[in-house]
Ger(X)C family spore germination protein
Amino acid sequence: MRQIIYKFFMGMLIVVLTGCTDRIELEDATLIVTLGLDLDEHNNLVVFEKSPIFSREVKKNTEHHDVQSSTVEQSYTNLDSVVAGSTRTGKTQLLLISKRLLQRKEILPYLDALYRDPKNSTNLRIIAIDGPVSEVVNFELKNKPRLSIYLSKLIDSSSLRHITSKVTLRKFHYMMVEPGITPFISEIKKEKEELRVLGVTLLNDKGYYRTSLNLQETELLDLLRNNQKASYSFTIPVKMLGSNKKNISILVKPQKRNITTNYQHGLPQFDIEIKVVGNITERTFQMNLEKKGNKRKLEAMIENEINKLMAALIKKLQRHQVDPIGLGLYVRAYHYNKWKAMNKPWAEIFAKSSIRFQSQVEIKNIGVIK
């Protein structure tokens, strides 16, 4: 009986203690919380890292380094030669990629090390940088949390307001390998003494940079993608009789999105209908909206403006042969035989497709002021 109990406890100790074999003290580790990828003037890969310092003997609470290397995995070895602690990547929160790299190199091979190691976080946020990555990594924020925390919160809150999109490493991999959609990531830029969200960066199916969307275009894209995390805020110009253009701001909530697909002359045809209800938050002109006719007239003006903005956005997407909406998923779902018979990448077919958009706006609340 004693031998059985002894063997049981020894077995439990072996099982429990195996998780402590790679234990390391925080003071002896360099936790890379921000990772950056850029190209130098000779198009060689430069890897940047920023990590916190756990010591009371130093004034700064972070350190940053950059090394030139052929791959991301090789850069960890090069970083070990300049940092005091052992490099650890499991706590990485941000991956910053310069627009220069996205324009010149296929991005997915550079991310292989991040996907292949199970200790790496797949929830890190991928962000495109309009400008050198060094400007962001070396930027010392004043009266704000450290860079990894501040940028994570900035991207998350901006995503909730639909002015950018939070794209994690896992989500980016899905968009890269899914043929029915082209990838997109957040885009920011350092301007003077602040970091500013610009919108989103659109990539082709190989991960090369194609174009960027500004804040309003990003909001429209989110509406097309049926992202219902929060309401949308639009400021729309309207033209009143006998006056110059005025503006109205409206907070809208999508109620229904319907996408129908057909084929005509060998190409897909999409009809997108979106119904939204909204509340007026600002109005710079006089109009009696208690009259049903005036209210419907204003709704028609808003619908017309949204339709024009959407048409311009769709035309831009087709011109650059990118489909961040994911319309290819609908073709595969409803016209699978035609999808299998395609002999060109979906983005090229998307550029030639017929896409019609129609909005339906209903004003629910005009505010407390008549």
In short: The two ends are 87 Å apart (CA to CA). The mean pLDDT is 87.
